[in-house]
Amino acid sequence: MSRAEGQIFERVRISRKRVIPLPGEVMVEAGDRVHPGDLIARAETVPGDPYIVDLQNELGVRLTPEKVSEVMLKRVGDRVLGQEPLARTEVGPFREVREARSPVDGVVEFISHAYARVLVREDAQKAAPVVILNVARKLDVAPALIRAFMRYREGDEVRQGAILADAPGGLGVEYCYAPATGVIERICTRTGTVTIVRPSKSAQVDAYIEGTVKEIYPEKGALVETTAAYVQGVFGLGFENHGPLRVVARDPSETLDAEDITPDLAGAVVVGGARVTLEAMRKALHEGVAGIVSGGADMEDLVSLLGRDIVVGITGQEEVDLTVVLTEGFGSMPMAEDVFEFLRAAEGRTVSVNGSTQVRAGVVRPEIILPLEDDEPADPLEDLLARREAEKGEPTVGAKVRIVRNPKFGRWGTVVSVPSEPVRFETEALLPAAEVELDDGSRVFVPLANLEVF
After folding, report:
1. What per-residue confidence (pLDDT) applies to 171?
2. Are 328 and 295 in contact (CB under 8 A)?
């Protein structure tokens, strides 16, 4: 099997489960035809804030650290519902029962015995976008007077835990704390309440590929399926992206440099040749290029692009608005002729790209997906990949292999010998290994577990 034969599947059935992490609204129906940027599901979520409950303020008694332990009904790690008692005590000659209750659904995260306070972390899935706090009741003052005790006004931003208002009380000064971060929308002198609007963030997922909605997952998303051509890469950076394919290189041995990246490539997936330079990737980010496909790139350039070291074992979650797919490996490595010609034939068509790479358990490779214009039957991609892996077998003399672990990750070579005895490496590990002649003519011993056969 040639290198390209292992990378290209000209007709496969691809299914992608597109779901959001929290319950929300599904925007499509079964049978709908979708494009990569179409919204599948969305949810407006409010982050789960920490809520501080002042036990002395709520119970109206002074509490020593020992007394805190006596009155607590919950422990750290316990789940609680809104208004569920956290602590209870009896006061006065008639043994009046007083309780401190949880303001929200959540988990008891911390108990301060020294300060008699309890921190409850709100359940993000149940977080309310608006919080209404009865300040007059907390401070035991007339509702009409609460503005005199407020430290904030309407329109002010307030942080969770900040002192919202204070007033003289039986035990000194009584404090009312902001239960959530947000903006004060209203101070009502009729009810004595303060309304805080909390910032929300959206969670959404698009289709990623052009295809048909085959199944709906209520409140979560959908299964999208397409018949497509599929090209598998060796290493990548960045998550999902899509755009029209633009082949800039004239042949697979060219270097993609900064001058090759022009403003008209904004939103496109650009195909280079043997190597993409750091300057080209930086300019691609500046111009709004969606993705770059190249035979190779220098690891140092990829590190400089991100501004930090790369975890070779798992990629795809980098905070970079550019997807990079390497089809061959690191360094200057001409793209396989068949891959280059295949991509050039698809010039102008919309493709989906994903740089996610995982070379340990549960192997994941970067991908290029080219939807086909017909829905003729095709074998599932997963079945073909599994069959290919099963056919590879163990490295033997003459086999074409790729190294999938550092320090030679991404390099191609040919097995020239397989010693019958384990080989000792610099780490002092004694492992079954193969001697591999790399593309540059040098020879190295590589553990068998670090080789992928093609």
Report:
1. 63
2. yes
pLDDT above 80 for 22? no
Q: How confident is the model at residue 184 (pLDDT cuts 50, 70, 90)?
A: very high
Query: Which listed CATH number (3.40.1710, 1.10.150, 1.10.10, 2.40.50) goes with 130-199?
Result: 2.40.50
Say whether pLDDT at 64 is over 90: yes
Q: What is the pLDDT of residues 288-332, one digit of tens each?
A: 999 999 999 998 999 899 888 776 567 777 778 999 999 988 888
What stretch(es) of the chain map to CATH 2.30.30.30?
A: 393-453
Q: Cα-flanking dihedrals φ and ψ of residue 411, to 5°?
A: -80, 145
| pLDDT on residue 223 | 97
Residue 87 has pLDDT above 70, yes or no: yes
* Domain 234-365 CATH assignment equals 3.40.50: no
Which SS3 state, helix, strand or coil, does residue 272 take?
Answer: coil
Architecture field, domain 393-453: Roll (2.30)
Residue that is written with structure tokens 């070291």 in the block: 309
Taking the C-alpha atoms of residue 360 and residue 380, their distance in angstroms, rounded to an integer, is 23
- Indicate the pairing of strand 240-247 with strand 269-271: parallel
Handedness of CA 278, 233, 9, 18 (dihedral sign): negative
Q: Can you tell me which residue has the tokens 């101070």?
A: 187
Query: What would the two tokens of residue 153 be?
Result: 């006004």
Half-sphere exposure of 174 (CA within 13 A, CB side): 18
* Residue pair 60/170 in contact by the 8 Å Cβ criterion: yes
Largest CA distance in the chain: 93
- Return the pLDDT at 47: 63
Considering the chain, tell me which residue range(s) the CATH 3.50.30 domain(s) occupy.
Answer: 234-365
DSSP H/E element including 89: strand 85-91
| Domain limits, CATH 2.40.50, in the chain | 47-127, 130-199
Structure token pair of residue 294:
């190249």
4 pLDDT tier (thresholds 50, 70, 90): very low
Determine which helix (DSSP H) or strand (DSSP E) holds 216, and give its type and residue range: strand 211-217
- Type of residue found at 394: E
User: CATH for 47-127, among 2.40.50, 1.10.10, 2.60.120, 2.30.29?
Assistant: 2.40.50
